[in-house]
Amino acid sequence: MKKLYAILMSGILLTFVGKSHAEITYGVSAALTKIEASGSETEGGEKTDKTVDNVVVIPSVFVEYAYSDLITVGLDLIPLSADVSDSTKSRSDTETSVTGTTTTTSTSRTNKANAELKNHLTLYGHYNLSDTTYVKAGLAFVTLETNESLDTGSKYGNEDIFGGVIGVGMSEGPIRFELSYTDYEDISLTSSVARTGVTTNNKIDADLDTLALKVSYTF
């Protein structure tokens, strides 16, 4: 999938090269975006479910090429990162026993975690229904960067994920309004370090999606 995306990206960039300025549109956007993630962490046979969300305003820049009066293709880049949750999640656990020992313990561990989306890029196409309205479909690529401080010793890496984009929009001169939904592929992360006394590494499974109301200005 990543190779296919790279090929598509290269193809669309080559399309822009050599085209006249009249055929290419540039623009900036601001999108009121709701990010929602639901998932679970499996730790030594124990499974914990959690749903988090965040509402943020996300800026982006884009470039488009009009193939015809009906079809336009474009690239949208978000230069900033966005937190998946509106706050860092914290949990404290008290361990009363350790596998392989008979001694009762009272070890307390505090785990803090959050994640953010970075390097978000979308390849998309518009199909014009009229002079002012269109439908949109595309493929998004983003890096999910985990930020954790876990007393268990577990460490999670980052993950590059894809998402499918659909949306509708309307334009009036250089101003454009758009409502879009992005459903990202399922995420599965396994910790690189196992918890003390547990032979199986922790695992996180999650699902991520966004709903955005975007305002754009084209040049």
Radius of gyration: 22 Å
Strand numbers in spatial order across the main sheet: 1-2-3-6-7-8-9-11
- Give a count of the beta strands, DSSP E runs of length 2 or more: 11
The third-level CATH topology is Porin
Quote the average pLDDT: 79
What is the makeup of the main sheet? Answer: 8 strands, antiparallel, barrel
**Helical coverage, percent range:** under 10%
Secondary-structure topology with pairs:
Elements: H1 2-16, E1 24-43, E2 46-66, E3 71-78, E4 82-83, E5 89-95, E6 107-128, E7 133-150, E8 159-172, E9 175-184, E10 187-190, E11 203-218
Antiparallel strand pairs: 1-2, 1-11, 2-3, 3-6, 4-6, 5-6, 6-7, 7-8, 8-9, 9-11, 10-11
Structure, explained:
- The protein is mainly beta and 219 residues long.
- It has a single domain (2-87, 110-218), classed as Porin (Beta Barrel), CATH 2.40.160.
- Helices cover 7% and strands 65% of the residues.
- It contains one helix and eleven strands; from the N terminus they run αβββββββββββ.
- Strands 1-2-3-6-7-8-9-11 form an eight-stranded antiparallel beta barrel.
- The longest helix is centred in the first third of the chain and has 15 residues, at 2-16.
- The mean pLDDT is 79.
